[in-house]
Amino acid sequence: MTTAPGRRSSTFTRLLRHGFTDPSAAEQLLDLDALASVRSDPVLLEALGATADPDLALRGLVRIVEAEEEGDRQVLLDTLVTAKPLRDRLLGVLGASEALGDHLARHPRDWQALVTYEAADLHPGVAEFERGLAEATDPDALRVAYRRCLLTLAARDVCGTTGIAQTAAELADLATATLRAALAIARTAAPEDAARCRLAVVAMGKCGGRELNYVSDVDVIFVAEARDGADETKAMQAATRLAAHMMRICSETTVEGTIWEVDANLRPEGRNGPLVRTLSSHLAYYQRWAKTWEFQALLKARAVAGDPELGAEYVDAVSPLVWQAADRENFVPDVQKMRRRVVDNIPADRIDRELKLGPGGLRDVEFAVQLLQLVHGRSDASLRSGSTLEALRELAEGGYVGRADAAQLDEAYRFLRAMEHRIQLHRLRRTHLVPDDEADLRRLGRSLGMRTDPVAELNKAWKRHASVVRRLHEKIFYRPLLDAVAQLAPGESRLSAKAAAIRLEALGYADPSAALRHLEALSSGVTRKAAIQRTLLPVLLGWFADSADPDAGLLGFRKVSDALGKTPWYLRLLRDEGAAAENLARVLSAGRLAPDLLMRAPEAVAILGDPEGLTPRTRAHLEQEVLAAVGRAGDAESAVAVVRGVRRRELFRTTAADLIGSYGTEDSPAEQDHGALVDRVGSAVSDLNAATIAGALRAAVRERWGDTLPTRFAVIGMGRFGGHELSYGSDADVLFVHQPREGVSDEEAAKAASAVVSEMRRLLQLPTADPPLLIDADLRPEGKTGPMVRTLKSYAAYYRRWSLVWESQALLRAEPVAGDAEVGRAFTELVDPLRYPMEGLGEDAVREIRRLKARMESERLPRGADPTLHAKLGRGGLSDVEWTVQLLQMQHGWAEPGLRTTRTREALAAACAADLIPAEDAQTLDEAWVLASRVRNAVMLVRGRAGDTFPADSRELAAVGRYLGYEPGHVGDMLDDYRRITRRARAVVEERFYGAVS
């Protein structure tokens, strides 16, 4: 075919029109002598253009023709252009599968397997595949025969003769026949072993469920028994050799490639357990040791090869255990763990292409269906199919899943499985990644019937179906619960009250009857409120179930909805602001503190929908708000009531941000920098309390003296308050200092200052719906016996004459927080020489600090408290770390400016930077301090009251674990980790605090 330079041939144009992406190369292939008899046949070009990849199909055809012997070549070409069934099948396979093209090039006569087009050929079963493999007597022959059978199966698939479910079933049947053939080869190779034992092969996973992929590990379990008269130990050894040989036959790669991996890791004890067990050994393990996921796996168990009677005995014996799994003690936490998406091990650059494990992937549908089978299959034997699609249909027919939801999931699952099949068929490789190459995507789209713009159409359809799965895979657990109580869809099967309670209990609800009452109250009726809540609840219920206390979450939602349900913005917020509903669910189900704060003023829920709503307000912003509110109020009590309302709102903001940052959301992972979380809480609560005290001070002064107090007055933060490290349950440690104004007597000034202190404390502790702020001034000179407030001159005299070393240590945290800024600065200047003594501490002072610390350890730890788990005073806890850091500050603060800070972590980092402590030791102390701080915060969030030790109640302990990042069922790991981290910190304290003097 020669054409004038610069002009394209008519063949080139036709090839382009028929979907070839490289018409020039295709034109050269058609010009080969091997295709001379058919190159101009329009039927061939039309058939090539109908394939997924015309270029690939043509290359494959040329390879087969060239591989055929001269006499057989024309038979193939003549049959190709005259027999449409062969043409569609052969070219369809060649255009979809490079691997099967390679097989045909090596074994060109195998194209003849595609000629037959009888009715019996359309849906072969195990028997037909066994006949196809019958002549294979060695591993290589088995591989060739397997590929020949796979060729016919793929041909029916790509031509649309079989649907996705039938194709998956045929692949499982072919795997069954292959396992039988491989076992026969192994037995022939070791007849003595075969004579000693009865061996059965039980298929698991997709093979067991008759829904296999083109390339997938074939999961199996082996069960064996000694034949009559045989020694059991020797019989088990023989069975193990036979099983291992069978696995190698299928799994090993030879010149003819491999078939697939045979995976026996679902057996008891996994890869650490024996490959083969007796039936009684299997049962003993399952009855005593098996975990929930193992029963979930057994749901698909099916005897496929070896001794059929023994295989049937195994399935009959384990089946009742599968359906009793939901009654097991750890079923709920196991389900919570399994329901949580495991995508951490998927590289970030691949998660968006992950068809199986990614969000909205195949695993979502399969897991949802299997979990519902485990929950309801114990009382309804119609739900026990091993096939995902069949089980989904049964669940819908029984009212366990809504019919519309089931139909959408069925369609999405079929499409995703079709994508998976076509991706694997191309090179016969085990993969679940959608390709990112344009040519691969084009072939994939065309293989699924998309011809106008295959890549765009494929991506659109894939995202649409994945979105359906993502939206529905959680809702199908909960929507039927609403149908059961709302009863708005006449004529449709629905869950009975008993079945609904069983499902709620399985998903973690401790009081399913109460939960159903809440659902009925929230979703019944025809109001707009009920309609919106019916839409929201399936998702909310899933988020509640993902927490340590689903019941509390649902009850809290009902309370909030009862309070705000008639407020238009509330329902609109939850419906339209994507993050608001999930944030609310996390906050309501994580413990008592945040919901208690919210219930006192439910309108604060608006914070959860504002993109900036979870950002803590600055101290300046808060002071401006509270002082303005005080200025508008009529009297001190009403002024401080407003101020405390602001504090409650801001405490809710802080707790909500902390919980959401610790738990993470579907769109935003949990905060990994736990130190940053602690710092944010400490700063936010400290700033909030400072602003609250500033407001109370202004209110107390205005009530009696107007705008000006007779003395200039300042509040000095001490302890965690001064260190910006307050936890939710901390009191506000303070000192009060004043300086009489010019012309005011010391007596008058002292009376005014004392009166202000008393009024402030009273106002901040008045019984109201808002949490009180307790002011603790016990760190003042002379402690509880000394005056509540002193002048600067009085402080100076006391510290000069009477101050003890512990008081200098306490002043390390002193920082002005409210009142007269100049007085606050003067106080700071007064105490700096005490807390950062020139040339550091003498040996006597260091010994005294150590003595005080040792005494505190022996006397202040509560009786009966576990010293390894007490966050404040226990081994390696807050006190250990803080005293170690403070000793460094007092020794070296005079010379190292970075140490002159009230913040523990900041001082520790400065000490490390100044080479006063090794980086490893500093990291150890910092990690322990952050963890102990988070434990205290967690206890307050969960219990609603302060505490320094882990809760004894199991549900509260689990909630603390969730806050700290531990999955359900791992509280033991949490306690072990806490002990390990604080034990290492204590070792550093022993060396750095109790060790060297300098």
What share of the residues lie within helices?
55-70%
| General shape | elongated
Which runs of at least 5 residues are low in confidence (pLDDT < 50)?
none
N-to-C terminal Cα separation, in Å? 94 Å
The chain-level structural class is: mainly alpha
How many H/I helical runs? 44
Q: Compute the number of strand runs.
A: 10
Sheet having the most strands: 5 strands, mixed
Instruction: Tell me what portion of residues adopts beta-strand conformation.
Output: 5-15%
Which radius of gyration do the C-alpha atoms yield?
37 Å
What number is the mean pLDDT?
91
Quaternary structure annotation: single chain
Q: How would you explain this protein's 3D organization?
A:
The protein has 998 residues and is mainly α. Helix 9 packs across helix 11 and helix 33 (674-705) crosses helix 35. The termini are far apart.
What is this structure, in a nutshell?
It contains 44 helices and ten strands.
Key attributes of the depicted protein:
five-stranded mixed beta sheet, about 1000 residues, mainly alpha
Write the layout of secondary structure elements.
Elements lengths: L9 H8 L5 H8 L11 H8 L4 H14 L2 H13 L1 H13 L1 H9 L12 H4 L3 H8 L5 H20 L5 H26 L1 H6 E7 L1 H4 L9 E9 L5 H20 L10 E2 L12 E2 L1 H10 L3 H7 L3 E5 L1 H16 L7 H9 L22 H15 L11 H10 L5 H25 L10 H10 L6 H33 L10 H10 L5 H12 L4 H18 L4 H15 L3 H9 L1 H12 L3 H8 L18 H14 L3 H28 L10 H32 L5 E7 L1 H4 L9 E9 L5 H19 L10 E2 L12 E3 H10 L3 H6 L4 E5 L1 H15 L7 H17 L18 H15 L11 H10 L5 H25 L10 H10 L7 H22 L6
Parallel strand pairs: 2-3, 2-4, 7-8, 7-9
Antiparallel strand pairs: 1-2, 1-5, 6-7, 6-10
